[in-house]
């Protein structure tokens, strides 16, 4: 193991490490800790500039109910779920099929199709912006969760295909060949042989895509307007404009917006990291 | 019909499986790329008639000071964002231990990557706040003057990049932690017997084995740097006086500007950004192609 395991070092180093670890963590998360602490302060503290001293009162419940009562943050959150969940289902479903096709069959255009998905996944969003907005307007889906979700499904299929294809490539080919010899049709091979083995990949992609889409801000501003359809990221931006210097409310809003992806990460940590570090080890 | 399917299903099946994915991808990714190239030769407000102007949009770009500011900032982003890679490696080495609770530490260090860049942007605007922000309180405590980072043309881009480096370092850290986990312990033991230690060990034994992780870290960091939009939009809206714009942001601003939509001009900026990105994409695809052939 590298660096040298701490147990094998001198007493002094061990003590130093054990002190440094929590200190480093606090320093690393300091901006976030500051926000969490601010979100429970009172308006009085904020106005009198008491940001860092002991709060005059703890307004946890008041602040968090205030943002839900006085702003459309509940609606924003709901909109985010309405975009995110269909996107996860759609992109994972499409890429199970494309990944299967590209991993299992040999045909002339195989690598070309694969590279199209991979390259498309890396393009800057701005090169898509004007035509995608136009297309969404023409489909009458501007300002709707469907319009956002359809675009996200299509775009995420690129990354998901890369992931699924490499995952299926690593499965034993013999399984598929044995099934073919038995005369099982290709569609049944996909459904009964390969799909059950893809569960870890499906889990990994689902959490990753959930986080990516939940945190999307650019497309939310391009394809939606107004509280009835905007997701939480775009919503926070508008709220930030309205709440000038009401930092306790901005902070509470930020924390609320961060809860779903953070919860997803902690619940599915293993899968999340497996998905994110694809290709980091040979 | 049945016989035809039976005989040819291995040829037809891949296309059946690919069809929905390809159709969606062509419609929402490939066709819009071509569309943007086309629009970049027109003058268009997004609603009315498109007017053909040839390469005029590109000629205008070459005289546009804001374009050069954005381009320069893109280069700064690209260069400084790379710091996330050594920083991520450093944090990963720091955390690659087996002491009690280390798993929780690793997750908490990864935290900044999980939350939205909108939240990161708000958190850092707050951190930089000239009167009550933590950074300036700390600066004043040690006897310096407060720096209004986001309102000063000289510092604003660096301030935003620092905010971006926070989640990006977390991402690189997790890549390296995974890489470190997979290193062959026997090689390390062998190197230790040869008296390799510290930096020499890191440079000659560890880093070569971390190459796949470094490669992925570079790819995601370059893409992240060129995609920078969210933080700029949240923290400064391109200001002060447009000094923190990058191409991605400038394009958006032009296409949806409050003085009327300039879709053609915006598309021309997007094309430039796309061509820069294409250099990296080609490099990545070339490497993938080599790996595929090598199998």
From TrEMBL, chain A:
| InterPro entries associated with the record | MetI-like, MetI-like_sf
User: Can you give the residue ranges of the ABC transmembrane type-1 domain?
Assistant: 77-268
Cell compartment(s), UniProt: Cell inner membrane; Cell membrane
Q: Which residues cross the membrane?
A: 83-104, 111-129, 149-168, 189-214, 246-267
Does Ribonucleoprotein show up as a keyword for this record?
A: no
What is its membrane topology?
Multi-pass membrane protein
- Entry keyword Transport: yes
Q: PROSITE patterns from the entry?
A: ABC_TM1 (PS50928)
Keywords carried by this UniProt record: Cell inner membrane, Cell membrane, Membrane, Transmembrane, Transmembrane helix, Transport
Q: How does it assemble?
A: The complex is composed of two ATP-binding proteins (UgpC), two transmembrane proteins (UgpA and UgpE) and a solute-binding protein (UgpB).
Summarizing the function annotation, the protein's role is: Part of the ABC transporter complex UgpBAEC involved in sn-glycerol-3-phosphate (G3P) import. Probably responsible for the translocation of the substrate across the membrane.
What family is this protein classified in? Belongs to the binding-protein-dependent transport system permease family.
What protein am I looking at? Answer: sn-glycerol-3-phosphate transport system permease protein UgpE
What species does this protein belong to?
Answer: Maritalea mediterranea
Automatic annotation (TrEMBL), chain B:
Cross-referenced SUPFAM superfamilies: MalF N-terminal region-like, MetI-like
The identity of this protein, by name, is: Sugar ABC transporter permease
Q: Which CDD domains match?
A: TM_PBP2
The UniProt record lists the ABC transmembrane type-1 domain at: 70-286
What subcellular compartments does it reside in? Cell membrane
InterPro entries to which the protein is assigned, alphabetical: ABC_transporter_permease, MetI-like, MetI-like_sf
Q: Which Gene3D superfamilies match?
A: MetI-like (1.10.3720.10)
Q: What are the entry keywords?
A: Cell membrane, Membrane, Transmembrane, Transmembrane helix, Transport
Q: Which residues cross the membrane?
A: 12-34, 75-96, 108-128, 155-180, 201-226, 265-286
Q: Give the membrane topology.
A: Multi-pass membrane protein
- Main subcellular localisation: membrane
Describe the family membership recorded for this protein in Swiss-Prot or TrEMBL: Belongs to the binding-protein-dependent transport system permease family.
């Amino acid at each position: 193991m590298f660096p040298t395991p701490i147990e094998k070092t001198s007493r002094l180093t061990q003590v130093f490490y054990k002190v440094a670890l929590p200190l480093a963590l606090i320093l690393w998360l300091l901006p976030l800790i500051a926000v969490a602490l601010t979100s429970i302060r009172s308006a009085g503290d904020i106005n009198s500039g008491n940001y860092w001293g002991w709060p005059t009162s703890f307004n946890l419940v008041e602040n968090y109910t205030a943002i839900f009562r006085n702003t459309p943050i509940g609606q924003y959150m709901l909109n985010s779920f309405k975009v995110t969940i269909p996107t996860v289902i759609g992109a994972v479903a499409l890429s199970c099929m494309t990944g299967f096709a590209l991993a299992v069959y040999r045909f002339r255009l195989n690598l070309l199709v694969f590279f199209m998905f991979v390259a498309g996944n890396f393009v800057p969003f701005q090169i898509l912006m004007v035509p995608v907005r136009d297309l969404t307007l023409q489909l009458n889906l501007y300002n709707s969760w469907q319009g956002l979700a359809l675009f996200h499904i299509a775009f995420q299929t690129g990354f998901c295909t890369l992931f699924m294809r490499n995952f299926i490539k690593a499965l034993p080919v013999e399984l598929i060949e044995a099934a073919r010899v038995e005369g099982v049709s290709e569609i049944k091979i996909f459904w009964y042989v390969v799909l059950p083995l893809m569960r870890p990949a499906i889990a990994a992609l689902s959490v990753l895509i959930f986080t990516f889409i939940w945190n999307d801000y650019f497309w939310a501003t391009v394809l939606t307007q107004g509280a009835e359809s905007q997701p939480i990221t775009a919503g926070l931006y508008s709220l930030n404009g309205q709440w000038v210097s009401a930092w306790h409310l901005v902070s509470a809003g930020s924390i609320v917006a961060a809860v779903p992806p953070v919860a997803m990460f902690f619940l599915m940590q293993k899968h999340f990291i497996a998905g994110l570090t694809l290709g980091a080890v040979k | 019909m049945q016989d035809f399917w039976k005989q040819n299903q291995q040829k037809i099946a891949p296309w059946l499986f690919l069809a929905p994915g390809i159709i969606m991808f062509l419609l929402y990714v490939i066709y819009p790329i071509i569309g943007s190239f086309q629009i970049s030769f027109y003058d268009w407000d997004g609603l009315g008639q498109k007017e053909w102007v040839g390469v005029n949009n590109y000629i205008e770009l070459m005289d546009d000071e804001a374009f050069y500011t954005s381009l320069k900032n893109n280069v700064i982003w690209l260069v400084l964002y790379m710091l996330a890679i050594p920083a991520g490696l450093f944090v990963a080495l720091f955390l690659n231990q087996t002491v009690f609770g280390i798993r929780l530490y690793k997750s908490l260090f990864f935290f900044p990557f999980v939350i939205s860049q909108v939240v990161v942007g708000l958190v850092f605007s707050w951190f930089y706040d000239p009167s009550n922000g933590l950074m300036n309180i700390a600066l004043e405590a040690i006897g310096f003057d407060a720096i209004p980072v986001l309102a000063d043309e000289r510092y604003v881009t660096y301030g935003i990049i620092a905010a971006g480096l926070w989640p990006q370092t977390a991402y690189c850290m997790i890549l390296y932690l995974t890489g470190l986990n997979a290193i062959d312990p026997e090689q390390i033991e062998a190197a230790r017997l040869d008296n390799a230690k510290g930096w020499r060990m890191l440079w000659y034994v560890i880093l070569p084995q971390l190459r796949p992780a470094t490669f992925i870290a570079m790819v995601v960091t370059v893409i992240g740097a060129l995609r920078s939009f969210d933080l700029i939009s949240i923290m400064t809206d391109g200001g002060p006086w447009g000094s923190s714009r990058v191409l991605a942001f400038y394009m958006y601003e032009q296409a949806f500007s409050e003085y009327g939509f300039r879709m053609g001009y915006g598309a021309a900026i997007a094309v430039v950004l796309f061509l820069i990105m294409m250099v990296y994409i080609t490099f990545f695809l070339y490497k993938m192609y080599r790996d595929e052939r090598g199998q």
